[in-house]
Amino acid sequence: MSKSLLLTAFRVIAAIEAVTWVGLLAGMVVKYLVIHNEIGVKVFGPLHGAAFMGYVAVAVAAWVVLRWSPLTGILALVASVPPLGTVVFERWATRTGRVDRTAARKTVPAESAAR
């Protein structure tokens, strides 16, 4: 798998995992607090389970291919546990150059670009 395709897959699965987490949480609110209907949990439970497993697989692949440090790899995996953690990790990893190293090197501060 090319790095470009892996980075795209990582970003997409991180977003999908976060969306399904929100859906599952909303389903649980409906089930336990609002109308006691299980449909939200029945729909989003399996979707979130698949998205979670997909995220873990892609995160491990990114860890290997992008040669993340053990700490970064573990943070990527731990990010799958709290709601929206995958999106927070992906944004942090992008900002710090861990997800797209070439973009991090090409970034030029606005001050020096204006000179």
TrEMBL record:
Record-level GO cellular component terms: plasma membrane
Keywords: Cell membrane, Membrane, Transmembrane, Transmembrane helix
Domain DUF3817: 7-95
Organism per entry: Marinitenerispora sediminis
Transmembrane segments: 12-34, 46-65, 71-89
Record's protein name: DUF3817 domain-containing protein
Topology in membrane: Multi-pass membrane protein
NCBIfam families: integ_memb_HG
Domain of life assignment: Bacteria
InterPro entries attached to this UniProt entry: DUF3817_TM
Location(s) in or outside the cell: Cell membrane
Keyword Membrane among record annotations: yes
Pfam families cross-referenced by the UniProt entry: DUF3817
